[in-house]
Design goal:
By secondary structure, the chain is of the alpha+beta class. About 50% of the residues lie in helices and about 5% in strands. It has 23 helices and eight strands. The chain has helices at about 15-25, 30-40, 55-60, 70-80, 95-100, 130-140, 145-155, 170-180, 185-195, 210-220, 225-235, 240, 245-255, 255-270, 315-320, 330-365, 365-370, 380-390, 390-400, 430-445, 455-460, 470-480, 485; strands spanning about 45-50, 290-295, 295-300, 310, 405, 410, 420, 430. The strands form three sheets. A four-stranded mixed β-sheet has the order 3-2-5-6. It has a two-stranded antiparallel sheet with strand order 1-4. Strands 7-8 form a two-stranded antiparallel ribbon. Mean pLDDT is about 75; it is low at about 55-130 and about 280-285.
Length: about 500
């Protein structure tokens, strides 16, 4: 039976300002310069120069009710007094509103060659490649709605340099629900993740190698029978395939040796690291933060020395104030551009404030590490979120693809986070310390009789670490170390 009624719900949606701020928060300093230059090209209300203060930015408005004519007249008189006769602009050099409103995106850009035969040709360098995250979002945008695109942004913000997802879909759904009040289910995140994994390059966002390879096969241009067989083998017999038990697979699927060889070659041609070498990551590391010891204090600064400073373009603003009889459509477009310029400057200030608060909180929690380069303590996103006064999703975005320069080297921010492991005497150590111990134990084992996970756990417990066998297995997998059976060598 259908029933009609009214009910009230309380929802919080992201404003355009918040979306712009969140996007800027994720951008590392290596890409920030490109982002700012793009905005400068697209918005005539912005220009390079000494920054407009935040208060001035928020107060400056296009207000048609103000008596602007008198102010403009006074301004023109002052300008005229400053100019000599020969400095006055010639009629053909004057510019109009239309000059500013031209949409250069509608015109093909061709670099001009203004040099003569006697002059050395200045080489033209193509623009930097588009970041992987932006390229993927552009591919996805026509296929999804606004909510799904926001989910995709959260997914792509949690992908490592190899292209793998570093947070579970459950955690991503919870981040969006709690941090941004977006009503999203785990199933919705899963659906968007599947679409992301089938973009170009395919396999991006996979949670493990098996999922990565299956996603690539799903979109591969292969004969349908071979594609289905390769996917079936990986899906049903992944362990046997990875451990090269080809005889077992031939018998199970009734294959000839030749057909098995073809399937092996197909799978071996797939890319196990779809994010490797993409433009999301730079060839060299540019630190986003610098932590220096000054006396007894640790000073945190943002590394923005190569980032252009921007301000509101007052020349253009004053030009617009003099215009009369503008069409309603043009007025609306002007308001949008002006509002976007104010939001962008405000978002830059907010980005700086948030990043510095988060980095200072990390330094406070890991003071010994930043002072000595050793003894990294257990620390999770929640610890930093509580100290910095922000939510957990903000921490996730802020540390994504960012690096900090210290007196002891450059570190990836994500590497400063780790789970805690209890010691026998009631203390706590970082999981990174335990992983190093596991590597040391395995490197010194007898290759003819490699240690099992149970034996490694027992050794660690004897050294004072309270750890279970399944935790050893998890850390060993994360380190990329195979099981004892696969480490065994005959000498």
């Amino acid at each position: 039976m259908l029933r009609y009624g009214q009910h009230q719900t309380l929802q919080q949606k992201l404003t355009p300002q918040q979306i712009q701020y969140l996007k800027l928060l994720q951008v590392p300093v290596a890409q920030l310069e490109t982002k700012l230059k793009e905005e400068l090209e697209q918005n005539p209300f912005l220009e390079e120069g000494l920054e407009t203060s935040l208060d001035e930015t928020l107060e400056l408005e296009l207000n048609e009710e103000q008596n602007l004519e008198q102010a403009v007249k006074k301004e023109l008189e002052e300008e005229y007094e400053e100019l000599t006769e020969d400095k006055l602009p010639k009629p053909e050099e004057e510019f109009t509103l239309e000059d500013f409103m031209k949409n250069i995106e509608d015109e093909e850009y061709i670099p001009k060659q203004s040099y003569t035969d006697d002059e050395e040709e200045i080489p033209w360098h193509p623009p930097a490649p588009e970041p992987l995250q932006e390229r993927l979002l552009k591919q996805l945008a026509p296929m999804v709605n606004e909510k799904e695109l926001r989910i995709a942004e959260e997914i792509l913000g949690n992908i490592d340099e190899d292209g793998y997802l570093t947070r579970s879909v459950e955690e991503i759904a919870e981040d969006l629900r709690l941090g941004e009040k977006i009503d999203v289910t785990v199933e919705e995140v899963e659906e968007v993740l599947k679409k992301v994994q089938r973009l170009d390059p395919p396999g991006i966002g996979a949670r493990n190698l098996k999922e990565c390879l299956l996603a690539q096969l799903d979109v591969a241009d292969l004969p349908e029978d071979r594609k289905k067989l390769a996917m079936k083998i990986l899906d049903e017999s992944y362990d046997d395939f990875m451990k090269k038990r080809y005889d077992k697979l031939i018998e199970r699927y009734g294959l000839s040796e030749q057909r098995m060889k073809e399937i092996v070659q197909i799978i071996q041609r797939l890319n196990p690291k779809p994010g490797e070498g993409e433009s999301t990551f730079q060839e060299y590391i540019i630190p986003d933060f610098i932590v220096e010891r000054v006396g007894d204090e640790l000073v945190v600064t943002l590394n923005e020395k190569n980032v252009p400073t921007i301000r509101l373009n007052r020349t253009y603003y004053n030009l617009l104030k003099r215009q009369k009889n503008l069409s309603p459509e043009l007025k609306e477009e002007i308001k949008k551009q002006f509002t976007r310029a104010k939001w962008f400057i405000s978002a830059i200030y907010q980005r700086r404030d948030t990043l510095l608060r988060i980095m200072r909180a990390i330094v406070d929690l890991q003071r010994e590490f930043f002072e000595t380069g050793e003894n990294l303590k257990p620390m999770i996103y929640k610890d930093v979120a509580e100290k910095a006064g922000v939510d957990i999703p903000t921490i996730s975005r802020a540390v994504n693809q960012k690096y900090v320069q210290t007196d002891f080297g450059i570190y990836k921010l994500r590497d400063l986070f780790s789970e805690k492991i209890n010691t026998v005497d009631g203390g706590e150590v970082s999981s990174k310390e335990v992983k190093e111990k596991i590597k040391e134990i395995i490197s010194s084992e007898d290759p003819r009789k490699p240690l099992t996970d149970d034996q490694i756990a027992e050794i660690l417990r004897s050294q004072g670490y309270n750890i279970a066998r399944r935790t050893v297995a998890k850390y060993r997998d994360q380190l990329g170390i195979p099981t004892a059976r696969l480490r065994k060598r005959i000498e």
